[in-house]
Protein backbone atom coordinates (compact mmCIF):
# COMPACT_ATOMS: atom_id res chain seq x y z
CA UNK A 1 0.00 0.00 0.00
CA UNK A 2 1.21 3.50 -0.84
CA UNK A 3 2.08 5.55 2.24
CA UNK A 4 1.49 9.28 2.02
CA UNK A 5 2.55 12.05 4.39
CA UNK A 6 0.86 15.45 4.11
CA UNK A 7 2.76 18.24 5.86
CA UNK A 8 1.01 21.34 7.16
CA UNK A 9 1.52 24.36 9.39
CA UNK A 10 -0.80 25.62 12.12
CA UNK A 11 -3.98 23.75 12.99
CA UNK A 12 -5.59 20.97 11.00
CA UNK A 13 -7.90 22.79 8.61
CA UNK A 14 -11.27 21.68 7.30
CA UNK A 15 -9.61 20.99 3.94
CA UNK A 16 -7.10 18.62 5.54
CA UNK A 17 -9.89 16.82 7.38
CA UNK A 18 -11.63 16.24 4.05
CA UNK A 19 -8.42 14.89 2.52
CA UNK A 20 -7.95 12.51 5.44
CA UNK A 21 -11.55 11.30 5.17
CA UNK A 22 -11.15 10.77 1.43
CA UNK A 23 -8.01 8.71 1.99
CA UNK A 24 -9.76 6.52 4.57
CA UNK A 25 -12.69 5.97 2.22
CA UNK A 26 -10.34 5.04 -0.63
CA UNK A 27 -8.29 2.71 1.58
CA UNK A 28 -5.14 4.82 1.26
CA UNK A 29 -2.68 5.16 4.17
CA UNK A 30 -2.27 8.89 4.70
CA UNK A 31 -0.82 10.75 7.69
CA UNK A 32 -1.24 14.45 8.43
CA UNK A 33 2.04 15.67 9.91
CA UNK A 34 2.47 19.06 11.53
CA UNK A 35 5.76 20.90 11.05
CA UNK A 36 5.77 21.14 14.85
CA UNK A 37 6.77 17.47 14.90
CA UNK A 38 10.07 18.09 13.12
CA UNK A 39 12.88 17.45 15.62
CA UNK A 40 16.65 17.57 15.13
CA UNK A 41 19.44 16.59 17.55
CA UNK A 42 23.10 16.91 16.57
CA UNK A 43 23.98 13.99 18.88
CA UNK A 44 22.02 11.53 16.74
CA UNK A 45 22.42 13.49 13.52
CA UNK A 46 18.89 12.53 12.55
CA UNK A 47 15.88 14.62 11.63
CA UNK A 48 12.81 12.96 13.10
CA UNK A 49 9.07 13.49 12.98
CA UNK A 50 8.44 12.52 16.62
CA UNK A 51 8.87 8.79 16.10
CA UNK A 52 8.38 8.73 12.33
CA UNK A 53 10.88 8.91 9.48
CA UNK A 54 10.12 10.79 6.26
CA UNK A 55 11.97 8.08 4.33
CA UNK A 56 9.33 5.52 5.35
CA UNK A 57 6.76 7.20 3.13
CA UNK A 58 6.30 6.78 -0.61
CA UNK A 59 4.94 10.29 -1.21
CA UNK A 60 5.53 13.51 0.72
CA UNK A 61 3.01 16.26 -0.01
CA UNK A 62 4.05 19.63 1.39
CA UNK A 63 0.61 21.19 1.15
CA UNK A 64 1.73 24.39 2.85
CA UNK A 65 5.22 25.81 3.28
CA UNK A 66 4.81 29.48 4.16
CA UNK A 67 6.82 30.11 7.34
CA UNK A 68 8.14 26.56 7.47
CA UNK A 69 10.87 26.43 4.83
CA UNK A 70 13.48 25.67 7.50
CA UNK A 71 11.57 22.54 8.52
CA UNK A 72 11.11 21.65 4.84
CA UNK A 73 14.86 21.92 4.25
CA UNK A 74 15.59 19.74 7.29
CA UNK A 75 13.18 17.06 6.08
CA UNK A 76 14.71 17.08 2.59
CA UNK A 77 18.22 16.97 4.06
CA UNK A 78 17.27 13.91 6.11
CA UNK A 79 16.44 12.03 2.91
CA UNK A 80 19.92 12.28 1.43
CA UNK A 81 21.49 8.87 0.97
CA UNK A 82 18.13 7.14 1.44
CA UNK A 83 15.50 5.87 -0.93
CA UNK A 84 13.85 9.14 -1.77
CA UNK A 85 10.07 9.47 -1.65
CA UNK A 86 8.22 11.37 -4.37
CA UNK A 87 8.04 15.07 -3.46
CA UNK A 88 4.91 17.13 -4.13
CA UNK A 89 5.09 19.89 -5.23
CA UNK A 90 8.24 19.87 -7.40
CA UNK A 91 9.24 23.42 -6.36
CA UNK A 92 9.65 22.17 -2.80
CA UNK A 93 12.68 20.08 -3.80
CA UNK A 94 14.61 23.30 -4.47
CA UNK A 95 14.05 24.32 -0.87
CA UNK A 96 13.94 27.99 -1.84
CA UNK A 97 11.14 30.19 -0.48
CA UNK A 98 11.49 32.55 -3.45
CA UNK A 99 10.16 29.82 -5.73
CA UNK A 100 6.79 30.07 -4.00
CA UNK A 101 6.59 33.84 -4.39
CA UNK A 102 4.29 35.62 -6.83
CA UNK A 103 7.05 37.80 -8.28
CA UNK A 104 9.05 34.69 -9.23
CA UNK A 105 5.87 33.25 -10.75
CA UNK A 106 5.38 36.30 -12.95
CA UNK A 107 8.90 35.89 -14.30
CA UNK A 108 8.51 32.14 -14.75
CA UNK A 109 5.15 32.41 -16.52
CA UNK A 110 6.45 35.12 -18.81
CA UNK A 111 9.44 32.95 -19.74
CA UNK A 112 6.97 30.17 -20.61
CA UNK A 113 5.14 32.49 -23.01
CA UNK A 114 2.06 32.78 -20.79
CA UNK A 115 0.45 36.21 -20.58
CA UNK A 116 0.23 37.74 -17.12
CA UNK A 117 -0.81 41.22 -15.94
CA UNK A 118 1.83 43.87 -16.56
CA UNK A 119 3.89 43.56 -13.39
CA UNK A 120 6.71 45.49 -11.79
CA UNK A 121 8.66 44.39 -8.73
CA UNK A 122 10.65 46.69 -6.48
CA UNK A 123 10.60 48.60 -3.22
CA UNK A 124 7.35 50.38 -2.46
CA UNK A 125 8.89 53.81 -3.00
CA UNK A 126 10.34 52.66 -6.33
CA UNK A 127 6.88 51.52 -7.43
CA UNK A 128 5.40 54.82 -6.27
CA UNK A 129 8.04 56.79 -8.18
CA UNK A 130 7.36 54.73 -11.29
CA UNK A 131 3.67 55.65 -11.28
CA UNK A 132 4.56 59.19 -10.33
CA UNK A 133 6.47 59.54 -13.59
CA UNK A 134 3.47 58.31 -15.57
CA UNK A 135 1.18 60.94 -14.09
CA UNK A 136 3.22 64.17 -14.31
CA UNK A 137 0.16 66.30 -13.76
CA UNK A 138 -0.14 64.72 -10.31
CA UNK A 139 3.50 64.80 -9.28
CA UNK A 140 3.07 67.58 -6.77
CA UNK A 141 -0.59 67.00 -5.92
CA UNK A 142 0.30 64.81 -2.93
CA UNK A 143 3.74 66.25 -2.18
CA UNK A 144 2.78 67.65 1.18
CA UNK A 145 5.65 66.14 3.18
CA UNK A 146 9.41 66.26 2.81
CA UNK A 147 9.55 62.56 1.86
CA UNK A 148 6.86 63.13 -0.77
CA UNK A 149 8.71 66.09 -2.23
CA UNK A 150 11.93 64.09 -2.48
CA UNK A 151 10.13 61.20 -4.15
CA UNK A 152 8.29 63.53 -6.52
CA UNK A 153 11.52 65.26 -7.47
CA UNK A 154 13.12 61.94 -8.31
CA UNK A 155 10.11 61.06 -10.45
CA UNK A 156 11.14 63.69 -12.97
CA UNK A 157 14.34 61.78 -13.68
CA UNK A 158 12.78 58.36 -14.23
CA UNK A 159 12.33 57.36 -17.86
CA UNK A 160 9.46 55.04 -18.64
CA UNK A 161 8.02 53.32 -21.69
CA UNK A 162 5.04 51.91 -19.83
CA UNK A 163 1.42 52.60 -20.72
CA UNK A 164 0.25 51.83 -17.19
CA UNK A 165 -2.45 54.03 -15.76
CA UNK A 166 -4.60 54.18 -12.68
CA UNK A 167 -6.19 52.26 -11.10
CA UNK A 168 -3.33 49.91 -10.26
CA UNK A 169 -2.95 46.91 -7.97
CA UNK A 170 -0.39 46.53 -5.21
CA UNK A 171 0.03 42.85 -4.38
CA UNK A 172 2.18 41.15 -1.79
CA UNK A 173 4.62 38.77 -3.44
CA UNK A 174 4.02 36.25 -0.68
CA UNK A 175 0.25 36.68 -0.28
CA UNK A 176 -2.56 34.22 -0.96
CA UNK A 177 -6.35 33.88 -0.72
CA UNK A 178 -6.73 37.49 -1.79
CA UNK A 179 -4.74 38.75 1.19
CA UNK A 180 -2.34 41.67 0.80
CA UNK A 181 -3.94 42.77 -2.46
CA UNK A 182 -4.82 46.46 -2.69
CA UNK A 183 -6.19 48.85 -5.30
CA UNK A 184 -5.12 52.46 -5.75
CA UNK A 185 -7.23 54.73 -7.95
CA UNK A 186 -4.82 57.65 -8.09
CA UNK A 187 -1.41 58.84 -7.00
CA UNK A 188 -2.63 60.15 -3.68
CA UNK A 189 -4.19 56.78 -2.76
CA UNK A 190 -1.02 55.03 -3.87
CA UNK A 191 1.17 57.22 -1.66
CA UNK A 192 -1.11 56.62 1.32
CA UNK A 193 -1.01 52.87 0.68
CA UNK A 194 2.78 52.87 0.35
CA UNK A 195 3.14 54.68 3.66
CA UNK A 196 0.84 52.18 5.38
CA UNK A 197 2.72 49.17 4.00
CA UNK A 198 6.26 50.46 4.44
CA UNK A 199 6.59 49.04 7.96
CA UNK A 200 5.77 45.52 6.78
CA UNK A 201 8.38 45.94 4.06
CA UNK A 202 11.21 47.36 6.15
CA UNK A 203 10.63 45.48 9.41
CA UNK A 204 9.00 42.21 8.31
CA UNK A 205 10.80 41.80 4.98
CA UNK A 206 7.60 41.60 2.96
CA UNK A 207 7.86 42.52 -0.71
CA UNK A 208 5.30 43.90 -3.12
CA UNK A 209 4.50 44.10 -6.83
CA UNK A 210 2.67 46.73 -8.82
CA UNK A 211 0.29 45.36 -11.45
CA UNK A 212 -2.07 46.72 -14.02
CA UNK A 213 -5.74 46.56 -13.10
CA UNK A 214 -7.77 44.51 -15.57
CA UNK A 215 -11.47 45.31 -15.61
CA UNK A 216 -13.55 42.16 -15.27
CA UNK A 217 -16.92 40.80 -14.20
CA UNK A 218 -15.25 37.86 -12.50
CA UNK A 219 -12.33 35.49 -12.91
CA UNK A 220 -11.92 31.72 -13.10
CA UNK A 221 -10.26 29.24 -10.77
CA UNK A 222 -9.08 26.11 -12.56
CA UNK A 223 -8.09 23.25 -10.26
CA UNK A 224 -5.13 21.39 -11.73
CA UNK A 225 -3.90 18.03 -10.47
CA UNK A 226 -0.90 16.63 -12.29
CA UNK A 227 -1.50 16.71 -16.04
CA UNK A 228 -5.25 17.22 -15.71
CA UNK A 229 -7.55 20.17 -15.14
CA UNK A 230 -10.39 18.88 -12.93
CA UNK A 231 -12.74 21.70 -13.80
CA UNK A 232 -13.34 25.39 -13.29
CA UNK A 233 -15.47 27.78 -11.30
CA UNK A 234 -16.22 31.41 -11.92
CA UNK A 235 -15.69 33.80 -9.02
CA UNK A 236 -17.29 37.21 -8.91
CA UNK A 237 -17.38 39.97 -6.34
CA UNK A 238 -20.76 40.69 -4.80
CA UNK A 239 -19.94 44.17 -3.52
CA UNK A 240 -19.26 47.44 -5.32
CA UNK A 241 -16.66 48.17 -2.65
CA UNK A 242 -14.78 44.91 -3.21
CA UNK A 243 -12.67 44.45 -6.36
CA UNK A 244 -11.40 40.99 -5.36
CA UNK A 245 -13.38 37.99 -6.63
CA UNK A 246 -12.04 35.47 -4.11
CA UNK A 247 -14.49 33.11 -2.44
CA UNK A 248 -12.67 33.78 0.85
CA UNK A 249 -13.41 37.50 0.33
CA UNK A 250 -17.13 36.91 -0.10
CA UNK A 251 -17.14 36.30 -3.84
CA UNK A 252 -19.88 34.29 -5.53
CA UNK A 253 -18.83 30.98 -7.07
CA UNK A 254 -20.51 29.03 -9.85
CA UNK A 255 -19.52 26.21 -12.16
CA UNK A 256 -17.90 27.30 -15.41
CA UNK A 257 -17.25 25.60 -18.72
CA UNK A 258 -14.11 26.87 -20.38
CA UNK A 259 -12.58 26.06 -23.78
CA UNK A 260 -10.09 23.19 -23.80
CA UNK A 261 -7.25 25.57 -24.61
CA UNK A 262 -7.84 27.39 -21.31
CA UNK A 263 -7.61 24.14 -19.36
CA UNK A 264 -4.40 23.34 -21.25
CA UNK A 265 -3.11 26.82 -20.42
CA UNK A 266 -3.82 26.24 -16.73
CA UNK A 267 -1.91 22.93 -16.76
CA UNK A 268 0.99 24.59 -18.56
CA UNK A 269 1.02 27.44 -16.03
CA UNK A 270 1.06 25.04 -13.08
CA UNK A 271 3.90 23.02 -14.58
CA UNK A 272 5.89 26.16 -15.36
CA UNK A 273 5.73 27.08 -11.67
CA UNK A 274 6.56 23.58 -10.47
CA UNK A 275 3.21 23.01 -8.77
CA UNK A 276 1.41 19.68 -9.21
CA UNK A 277 -1.71 20.47 -7.19
CA UNK A 278 -2.64 24.00 -8.12
CA UNK A 279 -5.40 26.55 -8.27
CA UNK A 280 -4.75 28.55 -11.44
CA UNK A 281 -6.56 31.88 -11.60
CA UNK A 282 -7.43 33.11 -15.08
CA UNK A 283 -9.12 36.28 -16.29
CA UNK A 284 -9.87 37.66 -19.75
CA UNK A 285 -8.98 40.98 -21.29
CA UNK A 286 -12.04 40.84 -23.55
CA UNK A 287 -15.72 39.91 -23.16
CA UNK A 288 -15.40 37.22 -25.83
CA UNK A 289 -12.92 35.24 -23.74
CA UNK A 290 -10.25 35.20 -26.42
CA UNK A 291 -7.45 36.95 -24.49
CA UNK A 292 -6.70 34.99 -21.31
CA UNK A 293 -4.39 36.29 -18.60
CA UNK A 294 -3.09 34.16 -15.74
CA UNK A 295 -3.45 36.06 -12.45
CA UNK A 296 -1.39 33.58 -10.46
CA UNK A 297 -0.80 29.92 -9.63
CA UNK A 298 -1.73 28.94 -6.07
CA UNK A 299 0.08 26.16 -4.24
CA UNK A 300 -2.05 24.06 -1.88
CA UNK A 301 -5.29 25.71 -3.05
CA UNK A 302 -8.43 25.70 -0.95
CA UNK A 303 -11.21 23.76 -2.64
CA UNK A 304 -14.35 24.32 -0.58
CA UNK A 305 -15.71 26.90 -3.03
CA UNK A 306 -14.66 24.76 -5.98
CA UNK A 307 -16.53 21.74 -4.61
CA UNK A 308 -19.63 23.83 -3.92
CA UNK A 309 -19.62 25.21 -7.46
CA UNK A 310 -18.67 22.11 -9.44
CA UNK A 311 -19.77 19.17 -7.29
CA UNK A 312 -16.36 17.56 -7.91
CA UNK A 313 -14.89 15.64 -4.97
CA UNK A 314 -11.55 17.46 -4.92
CA UNK A 315 -10.13 15.69 -1.81
CA UNK A 316 -10.73 12.27 -3.39
CA UNK A 317 -9.07 13.39 -6.63
CA UNK A 318 -6.06 14.70 -4.71
CA UNK A 319 -5.66 11.44 -2.77
CA UNK A 320 -6.03 9.37 -5.96
CA UNK A 321 -3.34 11.44 -7.62
CA UNK A 322 -0.92 11.17 -4.69
CA UNK A 323 -1.49 7.42 -4.44
CA UNK A 324 -0.87 6.97 -8.18
CA UNK A 325 2.58 8.60 -8.10
CA UNK A 326 4.30 5.51 -6.68
CA UNK A 327 2.97 3.33 -9.51
CA UNK A 328 3.91 5.88 -12.18
CA UNK A 329 7.44 6.09 -10.75
CA UNK A 330 7.89 2.32 -10.92
CA UNK A 331 6.37 1.92 -14.39
List the helices and strands and how they pair.
Elements: E1 3-8, H1 14-26, E2 29-34, E3 39-41, E4 46-48, E5 59-62, H2 69-78, E6 86-88, H3 102-111, E7 119-122, H4 124-134, H5 146-155, E8 168-172, E9 181-184, H6 187-202, E10 208-212, E11 219-225, E12 228-236, E13 252-256, H7 260-272, E14 277-284, E15 292-299, H8 304-310, H9 314-330
Parallel strand pairs: 1-2, 1-5, 5-6
Antiparallel strand pairs: 3-4, 7-10, 8-9, 8-10, 11-12, 11-14, 12-13, 14-15
- Architecture per CATH nomenclature, i.e. the level-2 architecture of the largest domain: 2-Layer Sandwich
Determine the CATH superfamily of the largest domain. ATP-grasp fold, B domain
- CATH-defined fold name of the largest domain: D-amino Acid Aminotransferase, Chain A, domain 1
Number of strands: 15
Class from secondary-structure proportions:
alpha+beta
Distance between the termini: 16 Å
Level of helix content? 25-40%
Quaternary structure type: single chain
- Characterize the overall form: globular
Major sheet: size, sense and barrel closure? 5 strands, antiparallel
Query: What's the structural domain tally?
Result: 3
In spatial order, strands of the major sheet run 13-12-11-14-15
Spans of at least 5 consecutive residues whose pLDDT stays below 50 are 138-144, 155-162
Q: What is the CATH class name of the largest domain?
A: Alpha Beta
Overall radius of gyration: 22 Å
- Provide mean pLDDT, rounded: 89
Strand content: 15-25%
